[in-house]
Amino acid sequence: MDTSFRYTTQFILDKSYYSECFDESVPSNPSKKVYAKAIIFIVIGTALLLTGANNYASWFIIGLGFLEGLSIKFKRPWWLLRQMWSKAAGNEVDLTIDELGITTKSLYVDTKVLWDEMDQIKETEQGFLITKARSQSYISKRYLDQPACEFIRNIQGSQQN
Prior knowledge:
Elements lengths: L5 E7 L2 H11 L10 H16 L3 H19 L1 H11 L6 E7 L2 E5 L4 E5 L5 E4 L3 E6 L2 E6 L5 H15 L1
Antiparallel strand pairs: 1-2, 2-3, 3-4, 5-6, 6-7
Helix pairs in contact: 1-4, 2-3
């Protein structure tokens, strides 16, 4: 990058941030197909139970089916709970965006993602979803000013060319 740009802000990793992060980064799938694995476990477990092969194994497979179904049904609350239990929750994060990349620093995290390392920058309704190798990061627009959003959009446009 030949332009000089630097934006710094701070925010708290709270429940509203994590909720927005989940909603913007995890695709919702309202179809019933996502429950196919759970249904298969329950059907196989029931079939084994009816044949009398092994009652303990049958009930275990049925239980796995129900757990799988619950994990799909309560995916968002479970993810939010895990984030709120983490050491990072409630801490202040320093976010810096400059011509080299995006830096986040907090008590427990110190990362820098360079623009060249990013595979994709996708703008969502409420923020930017950044993909690097096999990981995703999310930056909320509520902590960015208009010039910072425009800078990221320009980076996004130059990556697509």
